[in-house]
Amino acid sequence: MKRILKINEWFHPDGFPISIERREPQESFEPHAHEFAELVIVTGGKCLHVTGQDSWEMTAGDVFVIAGPSEHEYRDLVDLRLVNILYQPNQLKMGLFDLPSVAGYHALFTLEPTQRSRQATKGRLHLNPKELAQITELVERLEVELKTREPGFGFMATAAFMQIIGLLSRCYGRSPSPDGRALLRIGEALSHLERNIHREVNLDELASIAHMSQRSFLRVFQSATGTSPLAWVIEQRINRACGLLRHTDRRVTEIAFDVGFNDSNYFTRQFRKITGFSPRDYRMRQG
Ligand code: RM4
Ligand code: NI
Fold it and tell me: Which atom of ligand 1 has the smallest separation from the CA of 72?
């Protein structure tokens, strides 16, 4: 049976959703998956990183995210050093403000990890020494907050974490690897969808942003996200609707229009399909 690392074993009992595990060096570790997401920053040495059927060599500067049910393992370790930032994505507002308009954010935090859970995918982000030094400094700040846990640490730690993901998302945009560029182009399309979530965006528009034919765009999109552009948009809209149902007292029909639907019955059907509840029941349970 495969080992799954549990939230209650790897996070502080106070429930704060970010935690750091430094491995200097990383010892060999059996194949495992996590109940949380893991942002891995390789700071030194090398090894063979095995995910599913495939493996690749990783070295200092490599950064990748393991999320969802993906299994991984390190083999042939040669003085490997890394920092694991463990986080619970559902407990954090990851895509705050304009972060979703940064293509690298989608590529690193959603596209690579979902692709990796279905097929072996090498991490494409490789930091240069200057970038690695900047990230290391932010990681140290995060670490101090998590260690001292002084009043306000939750806020300060979250701020440092956000700076880390923001900077990494930007670095991804400078990623020269060809595979990385292909994912970035899908990331650009996702940014565009996100910015225009209130209107219908057509396939033609998306394909031209991604510099692909409509056919290859659909294929690459499906392989990177596991879903179609339309389904992706609906899911984003329903996510937003969930937030509005929880945090405002706007009426369901108003919310349907707020998030970009122009038919509230259709909204209710899609909402039930994705969450399992009607918008009203959802609000009652969450409230
Ligand atoms: C291990 C190894 C694993 C990570 C745990 C938290 O040493 O780095 O990948 O999931 O730590
Ligand atoms: Ni792990």
Answer: 9
